[in-house]
Design goal:
This protein is α+β, with helices and mostly antiparallel strands and about 230 residues long. Helices cover about 50% and strands about 15% of the residues.
């Protein structure tokens, strides 16, 4: 019985041959996924947090990546952000491929900056936590004068909320508890240092007496003799 003829195997260069022959070319990237690629999730969601006064001058700022590596670039960016946001009632702005949420209070402007694909609600939660924590630290006086008077506390608050661009906490009550705990530890350390340096003379004298018993005994005898002569 005659065997049926086998189907011819396609040549690897059939696409190029088809193009040369004037036929349609096979689709490019066949088998590869099409459409926009999804951004890989990352914990490093915050690019910067800064507070400006009502003239656009920096009062507090922290940058968490190298998007603006120099002070000059940071100041220029803050100026652009202030010019874009200081006269609007919105809470979200998009500038230079970044998402910016902000809030004003008397003579302060608070900003949280993330990348263009960041969730605005997440950035807003950081901003709200920062503001409400400052309300507590500044005793409801969220304005320039009191911020400058309590700058250490403001930095403690920010460090408890964001670390290296990673959001640590978004609950202002938890932030305040941690800030108070750190402040208590700092006060205890300062008190310990003060107590350790308060009586150096007495400690040195006690050590000298312990290492010179004969001299101490002789001094005691002389004191007794003088008391008897009186």
């Amino acid at each position: 019985m005659q065997r049926p003829e086998a189907w011819p195997r396609p040549h690897l260069a059939v696409g190029a041959a088809a193009v040369q022959a004037g036929g349609p070319a096979p689709p490019a990237g066949a088998g590869e996924p099409t459409g926009p690629r999804l951004q890989e999730p990352s914990l490093y969601t915050i690019k910067a947090v800064f507070i400006l006064d009502n003239d656009g001058h920096r009062l507090l700022a922290k940058y968490y990546d190298d998007t603006f590596p120099s002070m000059k670039e940071q100041m220029a960016f803050e100026k652009n952000v202030f010019n874009k946001t200081s006269r609007t009632d919105s809470e979200i702005a998009f500038l230079g491929g970044m998402t910016i949420v902000y809030k004003s209070s008397i003579d302060l402007f608070l900003y949280v900056v993330g990348s263009s694909h960041e969730n605005e609600l997440m950035l807003m939660s950081v901003l709200t936590c920062l503001f409400e924590s400052l309300v507590h630290v500044l005793r409801k006086n969220v304005e320039k004068h009191w911020l400058l008077e309590n700058m250490d506390g403001a930095f403690l608050v920010l460090d408890e909320i964001v670390d290296g661009g990673v959001i640590l906490e978004s609950d202002p009550q938890q932030v305040i508890q941690k800030v108070n705990f750190r402040a208590d530890d700092s006060n205890l350390t300062e008190q310990s240092v003060a107590q350790a340096s308060k009586y150096p003379t007495e400690r040195n004298e006690a050590a000298w007496q312990f290492s010179h018993p004969k001299e101490v005994l002789q001094s005691a005898k002389e004191q007794i003799k003088w008391s008897l002569l009186k």
